[in-house]
Amino acid sequence: MSKKNISADDQIAVIIKAIDELKGVDVQILDLREIENTVCDYFIICSGTSNTHVNAISGSIQKQVGKLAKEKPWHVEGEGMAEWILIDYVNIVVHVFQKRIREYYDIESLWGDAKITQIA
Known about the structure:
Strand order of the largest sheet: 3-4-5-2-1-6
Number of helices: 4
Number of strands: 6
């Protein structure tokens, strides 16, 4: 997994940059550290406009995190359908959605106690 220890903030910055480079939309960071029994410290959520866009964003994230942070995901799900791709970096989990799927599952509401940061 990890070959080099970087801070969560630095890894988040790399992920946000990768999303931004491919014009991911409605980017949010959910800080889950103050919530008991969570599976990770942060969720990063964004949307793409099509299956191709969602796949491209996911690929960009994995490439940039691998290159700059020397970190490979522990697990990746959803690349086949590319409606919701989950990239699990253990303490940071990235969700790349198509808009309609994101609206349907509304995971931001499920984690309503989290501190949410909207990225412009």
